[in-house]
Amino acid sequence: MKYKKVKFFFMVLLCLLFVYSVYANSPPARIGGLITVDGSVLTQATFSGYSVVVKKQDSSSYQPAAQCTSLNTSDWYLIDIPIYHATLNPEGATSGDTAKIHLFYNGQELIINNPSNGQLIVGQSGSATHMDITAMTNQTINSGPAAGTTIFSSKGFFSVPPTNIDIPASSPAVFPFGIIDFTISDVPPGEEITVTFTTPDPIPTNCVYYKYQNDEFYIYSRVSGLDDGDNTFTITLADGEKGDDDGLVNGIISDPGGPGLPNSRKAFSIPTLTQWGIIFFFLILSGIGHIKIYRYRENN
Question: What is the pLDDT of residues 124-140, one digit of tens each?
């Protein structure tokens, strides 16, 4: 019995020595910082259900795993990326490699806007890099013609969730998913974003994307994937430029619009008369009628 305890002790000691030798010869590259999701900074109190993992560019895992499931007292995540060692750690990263951060909430992966696409360059062995993470959840429209449509942006966060707005009677098109309005904030001023839509049903191939701005419709051309018959398309918007409803370089992009099937003829309003206008109109007609009758009698 005593021999087994001694043997177990030496095995544990050897494991500890192995781990120490790995770290001593190839200390990990550490990254850490704040995590912001949909505009709110996560804290120890709100981090429940979240996890952060750094993986290789091909999505395979490092060994040991580079992950974080809790925040420190400064509300920072900390992740140690193992560094490659031919003998001690063949599954580690090489300094200068491209790796990718993955952020999960209750098992669902979120979209990371910063660093761009979640990508980072692995630092030197023993380095420590401050790297804040900004992420967003997919936004889903729950009611109206676009119910079930999911939307996400490459930058910023949805300060006004996507929703359908009323279609004016003068609409130049039929909108199968209605007009979708949303506002994205925290965009780097003057920069472009891409917004991806996934609709519950395929989009008709002859649809074009209409913007609704200042009570007028116009066709917006910076669109891709709208004519291939599937249910996904992407639009590109620039802060303060055409397509941004407020027209200001302020880090906020507003975008009412949607895919529409052009009408065969544009709707137009029929002018109407007031009550007095109708009376005056009939008086004129009556006068014209009396003049024609009078002239007819004179000639006959």
Answer: 999 999 999 998 888 88
Beta strands in 38-191 (DSSP E): 40-41, 50-56, 61-68, 77-81, 98-105, 108-109, 111-114, 119-121, 128-130, 133-136, 139-140, 150-153, 157-165, 173-174, 179-185
- Whether 83 has a pLDDT exceeding 80, the answer reads yes
Using one digit for the tens of pLDDT, what is the confidence trace for 233-260?
Answer: 999 999 999 888 888 999 999 889 999 9
Is 116 found in the same domain as 39? yes
CATH of the domain at 65: 2.60.40.10
Question: What percent of the chain is modeled with pLDDT above 90?
Answer: 58
Q: Please state the domain count of the chain.
A: 2
Residue 99: both structure tokens together:
């790796």
Q: What residues have CB less than 8 Å from 29, skipping those under 6 apart?
A: 80, 81, 83, 93, 95, 122, 123, 124, 125, 126, 127, 128, 129
What was the pLDDT predicted at 6?
Answer: 55
- For residue 98, the cross-strand partners are 121
Q: Are 249 and 239 in contact (CB under 8 A)?
A: yes
Question: Which structural domain, as residue segments, surrounds residue 48?
Answer: 2-136
Average pLDDT of span 34-48:
94
236 plus 120 within the same structural domain = no
User: 17 - beta bridge partners?
Assistant: none
